Inverse folding.
């Protein structure tokens, strides 16, 4: 109908500083570590099932870019794309991978602690890591990550154990990107139509068209969920809600979210159907942090993170909060 140039994504300069299987750890280039040598680094943890670059989508719509510009030393975990043989990667393997990446952030930066920001499933994993390794985490941000799965909404009804068997699905191999894409689309059956209407409305605005194409490119670029980890995610989180009950275990060790006492910022999005606000706020109700803050941003699960208001409100808010809690903390 009209020609739209494919935008260049993930443009913030970075270096790959560590590899773990298909996963990579990036360190963004910037002034943070030179300008503020006593400032602790921050590690960004994206969702396990989406490409990491939603946190660095395009200039002006990039949390990573904004944090680097604010003077922070920013690392980001790229989970990589599971292969067919990775169907046996367990949930504990995923938690262990995050722990190894965290140790690399400490080794490379020379810091004793770091800030941790997790988005979506990355938020859930980040809090699990913080509970198990509280001595490493100086500050924690949950960016639309679910915790109280009794409040998860439509996805909870879709995965009700009366008609949904995650173990049976995992028995066939990794949960494919196409399968998950269909699941998310069922939350908003008219989303595809709305996308085309939005594109038509912005047909004469090249900047708006580029933004839509960039977001659509990322949204269509899902990755598989390792089968064994997926089965645990569905059973112990969506169906049994073990984490906030203090009954989730990793290698036999109970994950006690009350062990988290570092400052906590929870960001919820007002129209989030993937992680409704009350699902995210389940973390706030169980941690021991004295310094807790909640920020509500307009938009949905993804749009709130890369949309127009993100650059004017969300990014500066996160940058200020991290700078206040990470600066001058090292001996």
């Amino acid at each position: 109908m009209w020609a739209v140039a494919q935008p260049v994504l993930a443009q913030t300069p970075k270096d790959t500083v560590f590899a773990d299987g298909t996963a990579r750890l990036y360190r963004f280039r910037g002034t943070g570590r030179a300008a503020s040598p006593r400032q602790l680094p921050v590690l960004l943890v994206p969702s396990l099932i989406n490409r990491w670059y939603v946190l660095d989508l395009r200039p002006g719509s990039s949390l990573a870019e904004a944090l680097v510009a604010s003077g922070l030393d920013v690392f980001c975990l790229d989970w990589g794309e599971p292969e067919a043989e990775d169907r046996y990667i367990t949930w504990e393997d995923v938690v262990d991978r995050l722990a190894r990446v965290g140790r690399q952030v400490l080794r490379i930066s020379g810091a004793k602690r770091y800030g941790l920001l997790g988005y979506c499933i990355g938020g859930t994993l980040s809090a699990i890591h913080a509970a198990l390794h509280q001595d490493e985490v100086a500050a924690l941000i949950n960016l639309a990550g679910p915790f109280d799965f009794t409040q998860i909404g439509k996805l909870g009804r879709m995965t009700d154990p009366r008609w949904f068997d995650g173990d049976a699905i995992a028995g066939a191999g990794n949960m494919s990107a196409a399968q998950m894409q269909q699941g998310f689309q069922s939350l908003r059956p008219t989303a595809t139509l709305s996308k085309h209407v939005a594109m038509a409305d912005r047909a004469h605005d090249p900047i708006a068209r580029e933004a839509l194409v960039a977001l659509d490119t990322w949204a269509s670029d899902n990755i598989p969920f390792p089968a064994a980890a997926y089965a645990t995610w569905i059973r112990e989180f969506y169906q049994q809600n073990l984490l906030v009950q203090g009954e989730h275990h990793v290698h036999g060790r109970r994950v006690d979210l009350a062990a988290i006492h570092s400052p906590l910022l929870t960001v919820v999005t007002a129209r989030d159907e993937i992680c409704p606000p009350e699902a995210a706020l389940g973390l706030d109700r169980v941690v021991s942090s004295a310094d807790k803050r909640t920020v509500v941003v307009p938009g949905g699960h993804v749009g709130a993170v890369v949309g127009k208001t993100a650059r004017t409100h969300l990014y500066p808010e996160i940058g200020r909060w991290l700078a206040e809690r990470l600066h001058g903390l090292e001996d």
Observations:
- The CA atoms of residues 85 and 269 lie 36 Å apart.
- The first helix runs from residue 32 to 35.
- DSSP finds 13 helices and ten strands in the chain.
- The chain has one domain: 14-325.
